[in-house]
Amino acid sequence: MRCRLLVVLLALVVAQVFLSGCLSGEPQDLYTYFRYELSIRTATPIENVTLLVPIPTRGDQPAIGPEQISGELYTDPGNLRKGPSDPSTLPEHYDFAIIPVDGQYYLRLTTPYMNPAEPIGVRYYNRTSLGDKFRPEVVPRLIETRHPFGNESLFSPKQNLTLTASSSGTPNERGYYNPEGYRYSYTIPVYAHYENGTQVSISSEIEGSNRWLEGFDFAGQNRYSDAYSLTITGEPQGWMPAEGKVTVGQGDYREWQLNLSATSGSGG
C-alpha cells in the first residue's frame, strides 16, 4: 500500500511538472531558420551563355545569415533541388563564380550551352537551435525579421524600393500577430547574354524566420522574405530589371521579442 502511494505521488509530481511547463506559455525549442532558392530554366536550348544574377548579401559580404557563401554552394549536391525533372548534379560545363560588380556581388554562370533538361535548381537551408528552453528576459540573438534592411541577408542592389502595403497587426495578451507584414516592391539588375533563346526564367528567394513552441500545440514563428523574378523572351544583350518583393514583420511577435534592439541582427 505504501509503495503504491509513493508511485501515485511520484506520478502526480511528474504530471504537475509537465503541465506547468506546457501551460506556462514560455517559449521552448527556439530556433532560427534560413532558406535560399535559385531557379534558372530555359524553354529551348541556348548557347554561349553568360548570366549575372543577384545573390544574398549581409553587410558588404555574400552571406546567408551568419554564413558567408561562395560559388561552391551552387554545385554542392546537397543543395541541388530534387524533382522529377531536375538533375541531381549539374553538368560539368556549368561554371559558377561569385564576383563583385560595381560594389555589389553577383553569381556569374557561364556555359557553352544550356538545355531544358538541365535546369539550375538550388535549395539551401540553415537551421540553428537556440536551446530547448530559455527565460524570456534573456533572449538569444534572433533574426531581425522586423528590420532586415541593414541587418540581415537581402538581394542587392535594390532600385525603386517602394512600400506597397502595411499592417500594424492585431495585439494580443502576449504581443501581436501580423499575418500580412509590410511589403515593398523594387527592381534589381540582372545581366543575360545567350544565343538562340526563346524564353528563359530566373527566380530567387531568401527567407529568414524565428520559430518556437508554446504550450501543448502552438507553433509560433515570424519571418521576412525577399524574392525577385525575371522572364526573358528572345535573345537579350545586357542588363535588365527583374521585379522584386520584400515582406518584413510577418507572423507572431511576443513581448520578449519586441524588447530587442532593432539592430541586434542574427550573427555572432
Please state the structural category: mainly beta
Radius of gyration: 23 Å
How would you sum up the major sheet?
A: 12 strands, antiparallel
**Uncertain runs:** 11-23, 261-268
Shape category: elongated
Number of E strands: 16
Distance between the termini: 57 Å
Structure, briefly:
The chain has 268 residues and is mostly beta strands.
Structural description of this entry:
- This protein is mainly beta and 268 residues long.
- The C terminus is likely disordered.
- The protein has two helices and 16 strands.
- Strands 1, 2, 6, 7, 8, 10, 11, 12, 13, 14, 15 and 16 form a twelve-stranded antiparallel β-sheet that branches. A four-stranded antiparallel β-sheet has the order 5-4-3-9, with no helix packed on it.
- The N and C termini lie far apart (57 Å).
What attributes does this structure have?
12-stranded antiparallel sheet; 4-stranded antiparallel sheet; 268 residues; disordered C terminus; 2 helices; elongated; 53% strand; mainly beta
How would the blueprint of this fold be written?
Blueprint: H1 2-23, E1 28-42, E2 46-54, E3 56-58, E4 61-64, E5 67-68, E6 95-101, E7 104-114, E8 120-129, E9 154-155, E10 159-165, E11 170-172, E12 175-178, E13 182-195, E14 199-214, E15 218-233, E16 237-254, H2 255-258
Antiparallel strand pairs: 1-8, 1-14, 2-7, 2-13, 3-4, 3-9, 4-5, 6-7, 10-13, 11-12, 12-16, 13-16, 14-15, 15-16
